[in-house]
Amino acid sequence: MSESSVTKKTIADGFKSLMEIKSFEKITISDITDTCGLNRQTFYYHFQDKYDLLNWIFYNEAITPFKKELTFDNWGSRLLEMLRTIKNNSRFYINALRTSYSTEFKDYMHKASTKVLSDIIDNIAAEKPVREDDKRFIAEFFSYGITGSVISWVENGMKDAPETIVSHIENLVEDCKKLAVKRYSAQ
Known about the structure:
- This protein is mainly α.
- The chain is built from nine helices and no strands.
- The protein has helices at residues 3-19, 29-36, 40-46, 50-67, 75-88, 90-97, 102-124, 132-155, 162-185.
- The radius of gyration is 19 Å and the shape is elongated.
């Protein structure tokens, strides 16, 4: 791991520990740097502000592992890994979604998942490409559903096990595949 990555991880860990005891709005850059034993300049060398840091944590802890070697066959296990990561850091994610920044956070999650789903559609439909406007609609539709389900799960205290959430989503996707086969084979 590069020195820059180690420093970013140190800042992220300090920020997450503060989110255990303070609301996002009340955390200052000074709080973060004091917790990490770093100076403000080091923070600003790596992040623009605490919103940028929040996005970096989400992207590196949840989205990147989800996207790694993602295929249509393993997306459920990747989603499960992401939900387990979120649940293992529950206070951080619950607090992140309670911030005044939550709309931007949700939008970020939606955009990231739309891109992942669009890539999945490209991989599935390699032999018979899907029209760009159809692909965008399908990716956004499923992104809203998955993102909404995950956000609701977090906001409601993650009462259901990650396996339960993934099972529900996998069942819906499987049923949609069956309907699509039925629809397109009838034409």
